[in-house]
Amino acid sequence: MNKRSNHHDDGFTLVEILIAIVVVGILAAVVVVGISSLTSKGNSTACTTSRDAAIAGATVYYTNNATYPTTMLQMTGHTPPELTLPTGVTIKDAGTDKVVGNGTWTLTISGGGATAPVFTCA
User: Fold this and answer.
1) CB of 106 closer than 8 Å to CB of 100
2) Cβ neighbours, 10 Å, residue 114
3) Cα 119 from Cα 109, distance rounded (Å)
4) I need a surface site. Which of 26, 57, 97, 118 has the fewest CB within 10 A?
5) Alpha-carbon gap, residue 62 to 105, rounded angstroms
6) Which one has a higher pLDDT value, 97 or 28?
7) Could you give the CA distance from residue 96 to residue 122 in angstroms, rounded to a whole number?
8) 99/93 Cα distance (integer angstroms)
9) What is the pLDDT of residues 101-110, one digit of tens each?
10) How far apart are CA 58 and CA 78, in angstroms?
11) Which residues neighbour 85 within 8 Å (Cβ) at sequence distance 6 or greater?
12) What is d(CA 50, CA 48) in angstroms, rounded to the nearest whole number?
């Protein structure tokens, strides 16, 4: 009688383990790509939303002062401010008046005074 016929293997083979590792690696790569595209879309949406808020703030500033703002500081410096920046967004450089959100996007003001300012996202 053959003794091997009564022997039971309870473990996995090396090939089965390697296949499982490859499948988990592929799934992890798909998840990382999906998350990075969501992050990019979120940053774009945050900038667009802040731009829309800045446009509304410029309109309120014009209503209160009979002139349009030429800097972000003019809209955020009043009490109450015409523009309240979202959490984590600060005015980076008063000379160029760029508003930066966590280093991922930039909102820039140009123009103002007699004409409505233009806000651009980058």
Assistant:
1) yes
2) 7
3) 5
4) 26
5) 26
6) 28
7) 14
8) 8
9) 777 888 899 9
10) 13
11) 50, 76, 91, 99
12) 5
In angstroms, rounded to a whole number, what is the distance separating the alpha carbons of residues 109 and 30?
Answer: 38
**Against a cut of 0.85, is the pTM above it?**
no
pLDDT for residue 115 is more than 90: yes
Tokens for 120, please give them.
């651009």
Tokens 């008063």 belong to residue: 94
Residue 50 has pLDDT above 80, yes or no: yes
Q: Which backbone phi and psi does 65 adopt, to 5 degrees?
A: -125, 0
Beta bridge partner(s), residue 107? 99, 121
Q: How many CA atoms lie within 13 A of 43 on its CB side?
A: 16
Tokens 């089965």 belong to residue = 16
Mean pLDDT score across all residues of the chain: 86
